[in-house]
Amino acid sequence: MKDSGKAYVLLAELAENERVLKELFDKRILLKQKFNRIEPDEFDWYALGFLMHNIYGAIESYFLRVAKFFENDIDKSQWHKSLLERMKLDIETVRPRVISPEVYKLLDELRGFRHVFRYVYQFELDIERLQMLDKKIDVLERIIRTDLEKLEDFIKDLTKKAEETV
User: Fold this and answer.
1) What tens digit of pLDDT does each residue of 6-39 get?
2) What are the b/e assignments for 62-82, b being 16+ CB within 10 Å?
3) What pLDDT digit, counting tens, does each position of 46-58 carry?
4) What is the phi/psi pair of residue 17, to 5°?
5) Which H or E run includes 97?
6) Domains of the chain and any CATH numbers
7) CB 149 within 8 A of CB 5
8) Fewest 10 Å CB contacts: which of 125, 128, 134, 146?
9) How far apart, in whole angstroms, are the C-alpha atoms of residue 93 and residue 128?
10) Residue 34 and residue 47: Cα distance in Å, rounded?
11) How far is CA 24 from CA 19, 47, 96, 105, in A?
């Protein structure tokens, strides 16, 4: 493993990513509360889509930090999909899987939405699909924390063992 100082930097960066992610989840909840008070218009639905896009971006940033620290090799072609697929792998002698199959499935769907939302400029937002995916984000928010905590505990254990052998 790389020296423990770099691992502590990684843990701090991951904590910052999680802070941003929590903030995005909280903003999403506030927007949905607004939806209960008013009849959402097109701009409100786009705001929800933008938050969902940013939630995936924050999670992807977390994964990039992990991949760069442990594997340091990200395939340039279709790297968004490759990165997500890598996070579900248990890489022997390197690191455990970062996400469970259930989280992977939810994130892969969110990744697909993010791509369409970001790159298809002249499309009508499918509000029913947005609402369906939004419900899945409720599930994602509840279960992803467990996966991220397991990885952080693994990094802390590695760091502790590395410091004990010095």
Assistant:
1) 999 999 999 999 999 999 999 999 999 999 999 9
2) bbebbbebbeeeeeeeeeeee
3) 999 999 999 999 9
4) -60, -45
5) none
6) 4-165 (1.20.120)
7) no
8) 128
9) 44
10) 12
11) 9, 12, 27, 20
